[in-house]
Specification:
This protein has 161 residues and is mainly alpha-helical. Helices cover 76% and strands 4% of the residues.
Length: 161
């Protein structure tokens, strides 16, 4: 049989946990949960009052009656209600939350990363220019040394001859 031991379950589990993407995912979930509170506060404290000034803050009370009687009591003997207000409210909440996340997180981060990439590219281009310049200088030195040797050998050849 083989002298190598198969990695145990514990070693495999530790390797799985130490992968970068698992840690990144855990951090993203924690940050996302914390950021949810910020977004909900913005929506409840700023957006909903603005929407409430135009219409109403709570859309859950809006419905259409599919089968009468829809008396408004909401018990089982009541008719069939289509609660389109709660669907509209959830949809608006999603759109507002997505807009807040996009404009406060995604867009600034994309601009920051684009600036970082541009700086890195400019730095690489500068490095490339320096390398080309050094290469050209070394070629000139080589050519000068070759020319100097050539003239020295010709001079030696003329002296001997």
């Amino acid at each position: 049989m083989s002298d190598k031991q198969q990695p145990g379950v514990w070693e495999g589990f530790k390797a799985f946990l130490m992968r970068g993407n698992v840690i990144d995912l855990a951090v993203a979930v924690v940050i996302g949960a914390a950021f949810t509170n910020i977004v909900n506060s913005v929506v409840k404290g700023i957006i909903n009052p603005v929407v409430g000034a135009i219409g109403t803050q709570n859309l859950d009370g809006y419905y259409s009656c599919l089968k009468a009687p829809c008396t408004g009591s909401g018990d089982d003997t009541d008719g069939i209600r289509i609660m389109w207000g709660s669907v509209l409210g959830a949809t608006l909440s999603f759109v507002i939350t997505a807009a807040v996340v996009y404009f406060l997180m995604v867009l600034p981060m994309a601009k920051f990363l684009a600036r970082q990439a541009a700086r890195q590219k400019a730095k690489e281009n500068t490095q490339e220019v320096l390398e080309v310049t050094e290469l050209e200088v070394l070629k000139e030195i080589r050519d000068a040394l070759v020319a100097q040797r050539g003239s020295g050998q010709q001079g030696n050849g003329q002296r001997e001859g």
